[in-house]
Automatic annotation (TrEMBL):
One of its GO terms (cellular component) is acetyl-CoA carboxylase complex. This is Acetyl-coenzyme A carboxylase carboxyl transferase subunit beta. GO terms for molecular function: acetyl-CoA carboxylase activity; ATP binding; carboxyl- or carbamoyltransferase activity; zinc ion binding. Residues 29-285 form the CoA carboxyltransferase N-terminal domain. The gene is accD.
Amino acid sequence: MLKDFFNKKRKYAKVPSERQQPPAMSQGVMTKCPQCKTIVYTKELKKHQMICVNCGHHLPMTAYERIHSLIEEGTFVEYDADITSQDPLSFPEYEQKLEKDRQKTQLNEAVVTGEGEMDGSLVVIGVMDQRFRMGSMGSAVGEKITRAIERALEKERPFILFTASGGARMQEGVLSLMQMAKTSAALKKLEEAGLLFISVMTHPTTGGVSASFASLGDYNFAEPKALIGFAGRRIIEQTIRQELPEDFQTAEFLLKHGQLDRVVPRDEMKQTLSTVLDLHGYKSQ
């Protein structure tokens, strides 16, 4: 049986030749804030970048909403939109779940990558979308991020990555864990070339994603109250047999303990990133 496993021809990622731009996501008319329970018009919420106007809670953004809030209109060019995960381990119901998420999100995978202009700076950007398999990292996600880093290296541009993930995708086993090393190795090449990598961790950034590329930025930023960590709170408490602080694994806790450079509210994000890019000389003349 073991011999058959290694001899079997396996599929890891499919890269079709034709590209298709996903349509805009449709949402409900009203949205309830999970923090203060206020019900607001979704249209108004989107005007405020999905920040609750009552309590300031940061609700999740889709990948394209995030990109449109940062990249100048008409300048975004997407990379590798048709790279999709396959089912290398024949995991029960995995293909059906992938297809269900494609239908629900109109995305082919849990990350969108591309290039565009941000306030006068040409950048390569990646944005993870937690609606697709909870933003989990499989072979396709790792491949897309690695290719985006390589494009940044080729074009000598800074790379900005927004993470939102539950970690490595268990349905792909060790192939998923391999993406931690692959993406980290690509970032090392970016560093050696003297190019900038800015990591922005959003809620949640956990597991193998937090333990690899998400924590390797020249600047590590996070949104307010974002959950950031490797193992879950309960697992840690049971292991060390101690009760953890109430704010453990929040962005504010990490900032206080020197693991982040800054916690940046979403409505200040573009200006903060633009300032950093300007300081590093990436503004177009």
